[in-house]
Structures are given as C-alpha cells and as structure tokens.
Amino acid sequence: MKRSVSIVLVAFMFAAAILVFVVTKPVSVQASASKTDQDSVPSAVWDSSGQLHRPVGYRRWVFVGAPLTPNGLNNGKASFPEYHHVYVEARNLDVFLKTGLFPEGTVIVKELTRVLDPTFPHGSRTEPSGRGYFNGIYNGLDVTVKDSKKFPETNGWGFFNFGHHPEPYADLPLSVASATRSFAAKTDMTWVQFYPMLRDKQ
Amino acid sequence: MKRSVSIVLVAFMFAAAILVFVVTKPVSVQASASKTDQDSVPSAVWDSSGQLHRPVGYRRWVFVGAPLTPNGLNNGKASFPEYHHVYVEARNLDVFLKTGLFPEGTVIVKELTRVLDPTFPHGSRTEPSGRGYFNGIYNGLDVTVKDSKKFPETNGWGFFNFGHHPEPYADLPLSVASATRSFAAKTDMTWVQFYPMLRDKQ
Fold first, then answer.
1. CATH number of the domain where residue A55 is located
2. How confident is the model at residue A46, as a pLDDT?
3. Number of folded domains that form chain A
4. SS3 breakdown of chain B: % helix, strand, coil, rounded to 5?
5. B38 lies in which domain range?
C-alpha cells in the first residue's frame, strides 16, 4: 500500500511538472468520431487556464461496469471503498469498439457510490434479494481524459479528482495526476479488463 | 426463502392466467412522454401473439445501479449471484424524475454479470485497486414492463426472463410472471430504494 501511495505521489508531482507547460489559452479537443452537430461538442472541456471542467450529464453516458472494493474486505483501509460506476460517451465507445483505441478528448468518468448501510463485517447487508451490496449515496468523482499532447509520457491519459465526498462536487479538479503505468493493460484503457463491454469486444 | 418461492410461484400462475386474456393482435404501448419521432418508438414491443420481444440496445440506456448478491455471501445459493445491472430509457426516467411515476410501456432491464473469477470464499478477488468484486461475463437478462392493462393486479408491472446464462439470450421470454407485491416500495418502482438516481430524486 505504501508503494502505491508513493507511485501516486510521484505521478502527481510529475503531473504538476507537466501542467507548467499546459497551454494557457482555451483548448477544445474534438473526438475523431464527430459527425453531427451534437457530436462536435468536445468531450473534454478546458478553460483558458488549462483547467478541466467537471463533466456534466455523465450519468446518462454509457455505463461499462461497477467494480466494488468495500472497506470490509480491505482491513478498513480501501482507497476507494465504494462502488466505482464507470461511464464513457457513446461516440467515444463506438470508436474504441471499432479500433481498440479511444479518440483524443475521450473522457472516462468514475463516480463512487457508497454501499448502502452495511450490517455485516464485510460491508454487506441483507435484503429480500439476498445478502450483498446495494448502492448508497454518490460519494466522489474521478475523471480520466485522453490527451496525448498533455500527457505524452503516460500513455496519453490524465487523471483528475473532483472530490471524494457526497455531492456537490468541485467544479474544477482538486488534484491532477497523470495516469501511472502501474495498472496499464495491453490496451488503450488502463483497466479495460474489468469492463465486459470493452474487454469482450471482437 | 420457501415463502418467497411460493409467492413467486403463485405470481407466476397468476401471470399465466392473465396471459389467457392478453390481446392476440399487435400491441404497441407508447410512452406518454413521447415528443419527437425517436421518442415515439414504443419502449415495449409485443408481437402478434402478445409476446414481449427481447429489448435491444439497453446497454446504452441510463444505468441506475448495480446491486450485488454474491454466492459466497448466500451459502452458495444466491438466487442471482451476479451483479444486477439495471437500465431504463432516458425518456421514461425523465417522466419518473418529474412525476414519481413511470409511463405506460416503460421497460426496466436487469442484466446480470458474473463476478470475475473469485479467489476468496466470499466470492471476491484481489486486484491492484484492492480486494473486491469485478465484472465478469454477462450472464442473464430479466425485463420488467409497466403495462397497467396487462398487469392490473400487480401494480401494473410484469416480469419477463430471457435466460439466466451467458449470451446469446432468448429472443422471446422463457418465463413470464407478474411482479409480486412482496418487495413493493412506496413508489412506482418495486425496488427504487436501491438506486440512488431514483431514490434521491426531489
């Protein structure tokens, strides 16, 4: 765990160094799959100082999976003890399913939701459908952006945190880091192996 | 558990009785929220013999939650040991968020995905992000349809199963039952309490 923290810190410092060189005028990244007027809206929106705006409407993007690493299974010290709801926009997903690569500007959202009021040591509770885990309140927002120019040293992906707490989230990132290579899979997505729609594509 | 099984069986027989009276000519139920051409496509599609067609494209509908009742937490006998990915169409969700009621013809999909290769007794495994549950392969499709005419005795909801196994699923329901009242919440949705987007609406 300490090693993971070190990796994150190093990545964070590295990201900070990168940000010194980030452009200071408005930048809009357009998905290569853009066809219609609606599609031409950039996936990632940056302001004039190079800050990423918090994505909106992501709960209606395409859901790809919900890993769950409850505190009860991690000695009470899970980095993210919640459900990880992961979303990606349909147009960017379509490019990935066709080419195996997400287009520039792709935003991947991970929204946390707490497990609903645990009654067992492992974090689970019992409902009519059985003992298990159920979705509690929203509890945090992490965003990953593909931008090969901004994050050339880390597979082209940057990581942004908008808060690890109940809503409301921050409008601008509370922390910024390049995605580390430590979790990288042999694909364009660092954790594609956990998401059936992405993993099992032909 | 036995009582639950009895309730389901009774509900199933009741549904079969109802189906005798189901119209035998093509029926299309239109969502009351319909405004545009696209919206006018019925949510639920029935064929000439009154059978519900398997929904298509539901993985791009709005995801509302993912309860998880793993076998390892249910003495190896969970009715549904998988993640329950639940989806609803945006136009129907919009009506619910505005009125507290889903419009006629609303289809709610529950797709199961197995947990990824468990290595612990509770069904979990360890990955770089921690010990927990990760999405495995798709493993079943259940569909709930709101149709007050077809299911007047059960809050207007009917339940359809298209298979509890890996893809491909059946094109027509393998079993049909009215939703029982046993799990009913004080809302239009039998299990709204497990889905933050529905539960926490103002």
1. 3.50.70.20
2. 92
3. 1
4. 20, 25, 50
5. 2-199
CB within 8 Å of B108: residues ≥ 6 apart: B86, B87, B88, B102, B143, B144, B145, B189
Residue of A nearest to B82 (CA): A132
Q: Is the pLDDT of residue A1 over 80?
A: no
Determine whether the interchain pair A66/B85 forms a contact, defined as Cβ–Cβ distance below 8 Å. Answer: yes
Q: Do B134 and A59 touch (CB under 8 A)?
A: no
Interface of B with A in 36-95 (CB under 8 A): 59-60, 62-63, 65-70, 73-74, 78-80, 83-85, 87, 90
Q: What is the CA radius of gyration of chain B?
A: 18
When scoring B135, B141, B167 by the number of chain A Cβ atoms within 10 A, the one with the most, hence best to mutate, is B135
**Contact status, residue B198 vs residue B99, Cβ threshold 8 Å:** no
The ipTM of this complex is 0.75
pLDDT at A38 over 60: no
Strands A157-161 and A175-178: antiparallel
Within chain B, which residues score under 70 in pLDDT?
A: 1-42, 178-193, 200-202
